[in-house]
Amino acid sequence: RELEKKFSGKHVVFIAQRRILPKPTRKANKLKQKRPRSRTLQAVHNSIL
Description:
This protein has one domain. Helix content is 27%, strand content 0%. It is built from two helices and no strands. The protein has helices spanning 2-6, 41-48.
């Protein structure tokens, strides 16, 4: 929504190499590796803004 306000009426192309990892579930706990903050949905969206 924020981007729609900023760039209304303009063409916008995203070129980004950002990966969003899913929320860890109980099954994924066996991987024993925490999901870094930079891979969360909110962090990726904020970094694009």
